[in-house]
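hey m, so remember when u said the C-alpha coordinates were messed up on ur end? i reran from scratch. heres the input so u can diff it against urs
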Amino acid sequence: MIHGLNNTYLYAAKKIITVCSNGTDNESFRGTGFFIQKDSGFFFVTNRHMVEPGYNDPKYKGYTLIEFNIESYESFDSNNRPTTLKSASLVNFSEFKFDQNEHNDVACIKDPRFVGGMTINAPIPYSMLATDDWISEKLSVCDSIAYPGFPDWYDRHNNTPIFRMGTIASDPRLNYSCFPGAPISSRIAYEGFSTGGASGSPVFAVQRGFRTGGSISASADFYREVKLIGINAGHFKDQIGHSGISYLYKSSVIHNIINAT
Protein backbone atom coordinates (compact mmCIF):
# COMPACT_ATOMS: atom_id res chain seq x y z
CA MET A 1 0.00 0.00 0.00
CA ILE A 2 1.29 3.46 -0.90
CA HIS A 3 0.43 5.65 2.08
CA GLY A 4 3.20 8.23 2.14
CA LEU A 5 4.02 7.70 5.82
CA ASN A 6 7.19 6.29 7.34
CA ASN A 7 8.61 5.59 10.80
CA THR A 8 9.62 9.24 11.28
CA TYR A 9 5.96 10.30 11.36
CA LEU A 10 5.46 8.02 14.36
CA TYR A 11 7.78 10.20 16.42
CA ALA A 12 5.81 13.34 15.67
CA ALA A 13 3.65 12.14 18.58
CA LYS A 14 4.96 13.18 21.99
CA LYS A 15 3.78 11.69 25.27
CA ILE A 16 2.24 14.15 27.73
CA ILE A 17 1.89 13.60 31.47
CA THR A 18 0.00 16.35 33.28
CA VAL A 19 -0.78 16.88 36.96
CA CYS A 20 -3.80 18.90 38.06
CA SER A 21 -4.96 19.89 41.52
CA ASN A 22 -8.01 21.31 43.27
CA GLY A 23 -5.90 22.34 46.26
CA THR A 24 -6.54 19.07 48.09
CA ASP A 25 -6.32 16.24 45.59
CA ASN A 26 -3.98 15.77 42.64
CA GLU A 27 -4.86 13.90 39.45
CA SER A 28 -2.50 12.76 36.69
CA PHE A 29 -3.41 12.33 33.02
CA ARG A 30 -1.62 10.85 30.00
CA GLY A 31 -2.15 12.22 26.53
CA THR A 32 -0.45 13.07 23.25
CA GLY A 33 0.74 16.25 21.55
CA PHE A 34 2.92 17.33 18.65
CA PHE A 35 5.18 20.14 17.49
CA ILE A 36 4.53 22.27 14.43
CA GLN A 37 7.30 24.29 12.85
CA LYS A 38 6.44 27.53 11.06
CA ASP A 39 9.52 29.25 9.64
CA SER A 40 11.95 29.33 12.60
CA GLY A 41 9.20 29.18 15.25
CA PHE A 42 7.79 26.15 17.06
CA PHE A 43 4.31 25.51 18.41
CA PHE A 44 3.13 22.66 20.63
CA VAL A 45 -0.41 21.42 20.03
CA THR A 46 -2.67 19.18 22.10
CA ASN A 47 -6.30 19.08 23.25
CA ARG A 48 -7.73 21.80 25.42
CA HIS A 49 -8.98 19.18 27.85
CA MET A 50 -5.34 18.20 28.48
CA VAL A 51 -4.71 21.76 29.65
CA GLU A 52 -8.04 22.40 31.40
CA PRO A 53 -9.21 19.14 33.05
CA GLY A 54 -12.69 20.55 33.75
CA TYR A 55 -13.16 21.61 30.13
CA ASN A 56 -15.36 18.64 29.22
CA ASP A 57 -15.47 16.60 32.45
CA PRO A 58 -17.53 18.06 35.32
CA LYS A 59 -15.74 15.74 37.75
CA TYR A 60 -12.65 17.91 37.42
CA LYS A 61 -14.25 21.33 37.69
CA GLY A 62 -12.11 23.43 40.01
CA TYR A 63 -8.90 21.59 39.12
CA THR A 64 -6.02 23.61 37.68
CA LEU A 65 -2.91 22.52 35.82
CA ILE A 66 0.19 22.48 38.03
CA GLU A 67 2.60 20.35 35.98
CA PHE A 68 2.98 19.62 32.27
CA ASN A 69 5.62 17.09 31.21
CA ILE A 70 6.55 16.04 27.68
CA GLU A 71 8.57 12.97 26.68
CA SER A 72 10.37 12.92 23.35
CA TYR A 73 13.19 11.03 21.68
CA GLU A 74 15.96 13.51 21.01
CA SER A 75 18.38 11.47 18.93
CA PHE A 76 18.35 8.62 16.44
CA ASP A 77 21.03 6.17 15.30
CA SER A 78 22.35 5.63 11.76
CA ASN A 79 19.32 3.44 11.00
CA ASN A 80 17.00 6.20 12.22
CA ARG A 81 16.01 4.23 15.32
CA PRO A 82 15.34 6.25 18.50
CA THR A 83 18.17 6.18 21.03
CA THR A 84 17.82 8.98 23.61
CA LEU A 85 14.57 9.68 25.47
CA LYS A 86 14.19 13.02 27.19
CA SER A 87 11.50 14.08 29.67
CA ALA A 88 11.15 17.79 30.31
CA SER A 89 8.73 20.04 32.17
CA LEU A 90 7.02 22.82 30.28
CA VAL A 91 7.45 26.01 32.31
CA ASN A 92 5.18 28.40 30.37
CA PHE A 93 2.07 26.20 30.22
CA SER A 94 -0.05 29.15 31.35
CA GLU A 95 0.51 30.59 27.84
CA PHE A 96 -1.59 28.01 25.97
CA LYS A 97 -4.00 29.67 23.55
CA PHE A 98 -7.40 28.44 22.40
CA ASP A 99 -9.70 29.03 19.45
CA GLN A 100 -12.30 31.80 19.48
CA ASN A 101 -14.90 29.05 19.29
CA GLU A 102 -14.59 27.59 22.79
CA HIS A 103 -16.15 24.33 21.61
CA ASN A 104 -13.09 23.47 19.52
CA ASP A 105 -11.05 21.22 21.82
CA VAL A 106 -7.61 22.44 20.73
CA ALA A 107 -4.77 24.13 22.65
CA CYS A 108 -1.59 25.61 21.22
CA ILE A 109 1.45 27.25 22.75
CA LYS A 110 4.08 29.27 20.89
CA ASP A 111 7.77 28.91 21.72
CA PRO A 112 7.39 26.31 24.49
CA ARG A 113 10.10 26.55 27.17
CA PHE A 114 11.34 23.60 29.20
CA VAL A 115 13.23 23.08 32.42
CA GLY A 116 16.62 21.78 31.32
CA GLY A 117 15.76 22.41 27.68
CA MET A 118 14.57 19.99 25.01
CA THR A 119 15.74 19.30 21.49
CA ILE A 120 12.66 19.42 19.30
CA ASN A 121 12.65 16.70 16.66
CA ALA A 122 10.15 15.36 14.11
CA PRO A 123 8.10 18.58 14.04
CA ILE A 124 5.29 18.70 11.50
CA PRO A 125 5.88 21.45 8.91
CA TYR A 126 3.25 24.17 8.94
CA SER A 127 2.88 23.65 5.18
CA MET A 128 1.55 20.15 5.88
CA LEU A 129 -1.53 21.49 7.69
CA ALA A 130 -4.59 21.16 5.50
CA THR A 131 -6.68 24.26 4.94
CA ASP A 132 -10.48 24.23 4.93
CA ASP A 133 -10.38 24.48 1.15
CA TRP A 134 -8.08 21.44 0.93
CA ILE A 135 -10.37 19.43 3.22
CA SER A 136 -13.46 20.45 1.25
CA GLU A 137 -11.92 19.71 -2.14
CA LYS A 138 -9.64 16.73 -1.52
CA LEU A 139 -10.90 14.82 1.52
CA SER A 140 -13.79 12.40 1.17
CA VAL A 141 -15.80 9.93 3.20
CA CYS A 142 -14.09 6.53 3.42
CA ASP A 143 -10.63 8.08 3.00
CA SER A 144 -8.00 6.45 5.20
CA ILE A 145 -6.45 8.30 8.12
CA ALA A 146 -3.63 7.43 10.54
CA TYR A 147 -2.91 8.87 13.97
CA PRO A 148 0.15 8.15 16.17
CA GLY A 149 -0.21 8.44 19.92
CA PHE A 150 -0.02 6.94 23.38
CA PRO A 151 -3.16 4.90 24.10
CA ASP A 152 -2.94 2.16 26.72
CA TRP A 153 -1.40 -0.13 24.11
CA TYR A 154 1.61 2.05 23.27
CA ASP A 155 4.99 0.31 23.22
CA ARG A 156 5.89 0.44 26.90
CA HIS A 157 9.09 -1.57 26.44
CA ASN A 158 10.57 1.05 24.11
CA ASN A 159 8.36 3.90 25.37
CA THR A 160 7.31 4.72 21.82
CA PRO A 161 3.94 5.66 20.30
CA ILE A 162 1.89 3.46 18.00
CA PHE A 163 -0.12 4.23 14.89
CA ARG A 164 -3.83 3.50 14.64
CA MET A 165 -5.92 3.71 11.48
CA GLY A 166 -9.42 4.78 10.62
CA THR A 167 -11.67 6.06 7.83
CA ILE A 168 -13.53 9.34 7.44
CA ALA A 169 -17.17 8.74 8.43
CA SER A 170 -18.92 12.12 8.21
CA ASP A 171 -18.95 14.59 5.32
CA PRO A 172 -15.65 16.45 5.89
CA ARG A 173 -17.05 19.56 4.17
CA LEU A 174 -19.47 19.95 7.08
CA ASN A 175 -19.13 20.25 10.87
CA TYR A 176 -20.23 17.02 12.52
CA SER A 177 -22.44 16.62 15.60
CA CYS A 178 -24.57 13.66 16.64
CA PHE A 179 -26.52 15.71 19.20
CA PRO A 180 -29.34 17.90 17.82
CA GLY A 181 -29.03 21.47 19.01
CA ALA A 182 -25.47 21.01 20.29
CA PRO A 183 -22.95 23.85 19.81
CA ILE A 184 -21.25 23.77 16.43
CA SER A 185 -17.53 23.03 16.30
CA SER A 186 -15.08 22.21 13.51
CA ARG A 187 -15.37 18.48 13.91
CA ILE A 188 -15.21 15.39 11.67
CA ALA A 189 -16.33 11.90 12.70
CA TYR A 190 -14.25 8.89 11.76
CA GLU A 191 -14.65 5.14 12.02
CA GLY A 192 -11.85 4.09 14.36
CA PHE A 193 -10.79 3.83 17.97
CA SER A 194 -9.71 6.81 20.01
CA THR A 195 -9.06 5.79 23.60
CA GLY A 196 -7.46 7.23 26.72
CA GLY A 197 -3.95 8.54 26.06
CA ALA A 198 -4.60 9.21 22.36
CA SER A 199 -6.11 12.61 23.06
CA GLY A 200 -4.11 15.16 21.11
CA SER A 201 -2.78 12.79 18.45
CA PRO A 202 -2.04 14.35 15.06
CA VAL A 203 -4.36 12.92 12.40
CA PHE A 204 -2.96 12.42 8.91
CA ALA A 205 -4.88 11.80 5.70
CA VAL A 206 -2.69 9.20 4.04
CA GLN A 207 -1.35 9.56 0.53
CA ARG A 208 -3.63 8.54 -2.31
CA GLY A 209 -2.13 7.33 -5.57
CA PHE A 210 1.40 8.34 -6.53
CA ARG A 211 3.14 11.07 -8.51
CA THR A 212 3.06 10.53 -12.24
CA GLY A 213 5.25 11.79 -15.04
CA GLY A 214 6.99 10.81 -18.23
CA SER A 215 5.07 8.00 -19.89
CA ILE A 216 2.71 7.58 -16.92
CA SER A 217 -0.36 9.79 -16.82
CA ALA A 218 -3.52 9.81 -14.74
CA SER A 219 -6.49 12.00 -13.88
CA ALA A 220 -5.85 15.19 -11.92
CA ASP A 221 -7.26 13.73 -8.69
CA PHE A 222 -5.29 10.46 -8.91
CA TYR A 223 -2.53 11.69 -6.59
CA ARG A 224 -3.04 13.35 -3.20
CA GLU A 225 -0.20 14.08 -0.80
CA VAL A 226 -0.11 13.28 2.94
CA LYS A 227 -1.70 16.07 4.96
CA LEU A 228 -2.29 16.78 8.63
CA ILE A 229 -6.06 17.20 8.70
CA GLY A 230 -6.63 17.64 12.42
CA ILE A 231 -6.19 16.58 16.01
CA ASN A 232 -7.80 13.56 17.63
CA ALA A 233 -10.02 14.37 20.59
CA GLY A 234 -12.29 11.53 21.73
CA HIS A 235 -14.97 8.99 20.95
CA PHE A 236 -18.65 8.24 21.50
CA LYS A 237 -19.93 5.46 23.73
CA ASP A 238 -22.79 3.03 23.25
CA GLN A 239 -24.41 0.41 25.48
CA ILE A 240 -21.36 -1.87 25.47
CA GLY A 241 -18.61 0.76 25.57
CA HIS A 242 -16.78 2.26 22.60
CA SER A 243 -19.15 2.86 19.67
CA GLY A 244 -16.35 2.66 17.11
CA ILE A 245 -17.02 6.29 16.16
CA SER A 246 -14.38 8.83 17.16
CA TYR A 247 -13.84 12.45 16.21
CA LEU A 248 -11.17 14.97 15.35
CA TYR A 249 -11.01 18.74 15.15
CA LYS A 250 -10.01 20.16 11.79
CA SER A 251 -6.53 21.49 11.13
CA SER A 252 -8.11 24.86 10.28
CA VAL A 253 -8.56 25.36 14.05
CA ILE A 254 -4.80 24.96 14.51
CA HIS A 255 -4.27 27.43 11.67
CA ASN A 256 -6.55 29.93 13.42
CA ILE A 257 -4.76 29.71 16.76
CA ILE A 258 -1.26 29.88 15.28
CA ASN A 259 -2.13 32.84 13.07
CA ALA A 260 -3.70 34.69 16.00
CA THR A 261 -0.69 34.10 18.28
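this time it looks ok to me. The chain has a mean pLDDT of 90. if urs says something different then somethings off w ur setup not the seq
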